[in-house]
Fold this sequence. Notes:
Elements: H1 3-13, H2 20-30, E1 37-38, H3 40-51, H4 57-70, E2 74-79, E3 82-86, E4 93-97, E5 102-106, E6 131-134
Parallel strand pairs: 4-6
Antiparallel strand pairs: 1-3, 2-3, 4-5
Amino acid sequence: MNNINIYKEKLRESGLRPTRQRLKICEVLFSPEKTFHFTINDLTKIIEEKLSEKISLATVYNTIHAFKKKGYLKEISINSDKSYFDTNVTEHHHFFDEDTNELIDCSNEEIDSVNIKRNITGKKIKSVEVLIKVATDNQTQK
C-alpha cells in the first residue's frame, strides 16, 4: 500500500474526508523518518515552507485533533495555553526547554520508575509520563 492510500485510510478512520489539504498534512506528519514535536502554528508554517501550500489554521487544527482522538498523535500540555503534539505515540517522557520552547524526548530508561503513593478511587492508572521543565540557571551565568 502506498503512502497516499495509507494517509487516506488514516483520515477516514479519523472521521475525515481525504481532501488535498488533509493529505498534505499527512505527508508532513507521517512521512518523516523521525518522529517530531510541533504546535499547530509550527505545523502550519512547516506545511507552507516545505510544500508551498497554504492551508487554513482551522483545517490543520481539526485534522490534528481528529488524529489525536484516534490515537495517531499524542498531545503534551506544557501549560494552560501551550500544547505540543508528538508523532511518537508510544509511552515516553519529555524535557521541555523553557529557553528555546523545545520539547525533547526522554526515554523510559533515562528515568527510574515513578512511585505513585495515591490513586483516585474507581480509577486505574493507564500510564505515567513525566514532563521535566528545564531552563538556563542564571546563577551560573554570572
